[in-house]
Design goal:
single chain; 232 residues; alpha/beta
Length: 232
């Protein structure tokens, strides 16, 4: 699904914010991305959602070398990726319903199918009564749930989420994590950037740990795996 080989990233002539990053994510895997503030998590996420290209090294996604892709091919590849940004990036002139429906409309789904799927998902994230409301009238947590619903509505092959539970109470946060777990069981590869120790400990997936621009992969422990299996 994703392969980074000796990847480095710098902005302009500054120092590298990512240095010699190497990892492989298999299809259907689920990883947390963590590390201290300023470690490079947002930069790494931007490479994974094809928002920028590395300054050195090789990035392969969906078995394709993305380093030399033109804009049209990158745009087509992005249709397989769902992204939840920290700043939400909702379209302010569209209602919550229309923001969530956008990925389905872009890919040509029937309006009857769109209405059914969007209504169901908005109910699931607790926003069924807010579907006709514009984003600017919603709270930060409500906007975050709209952004999450938009990212998952088309069942992407890859889901990248940057602190998706950061503005939510524990109950809603855990509920959304179970939604991500369900998507993962259906085959979606998931990477969630988070600082939440409670989320990582409860769900127990392997961790990609960034520290000063370098990355280490921490597999889940036998204890965590045993307890996660017990939940299901």
């Amino acid at each position: 699904m994703i392969k980074f080989e000796h990847v480095g990233l710098r902005y302009g002539i500054g120092p590298e914010v990512l240095s010699d990053v190497n990892f492989t994510l298999e299809p259907g895997s689920f990883h947390f991305l963590t590390g201290p503030s300023g470690a490079g998590k947002t930069s790494l996420m931007s490479l994974m959602f094809l928002g920028r290209k590395p300054t050195r090294g090789l990035v392969t996604m969906f078995d394709q070398n993305v380093n030399d892709m033109d804009r049209a091919k990158l745009s087509k590849l992005r249709q397989k990726i769902g992204v939840v940004f920290q700043e939400f990036r909702l379209l302010p002139h569209l209602s919550a319903f229309d923001n969530v429906a956008l990925p389905l409309r872009i890919t040509g789904h029937r309006e009857s199918e769109i209405k059914s799927n969007v209504d169901e998902l908005l109910e699931w994230v607790g926003l069924g009564d807010y579907k006709n409301v514009l984003p600017l009238t919603l709270s930060g947590g409500q906007q975050q749930r709209v952004a999450i619903a938009r990212a998952v509505i088309a069942r992407p092959k890859l889901l990248l989420a940057d602190e998706p539970t950061g503005n939510l109470d524990d109950n809603i946060g855990f509920r959304l994590m179970h939604l991500f777990e369900q998507l993962n069981r259906m085959g979606t590869t998931i990477v969630i950037a988070t600082h939440s120790q409670s989320i990582m400990e409860k769900f127990g997936h392997p961790r990609l740990v960034l520290d000063s621009g370098t990355l280490h992969v921490h597999e889940q422990s036998n204890w965590v795996q045993k307890n996660i299996e017990g939940v299901y």
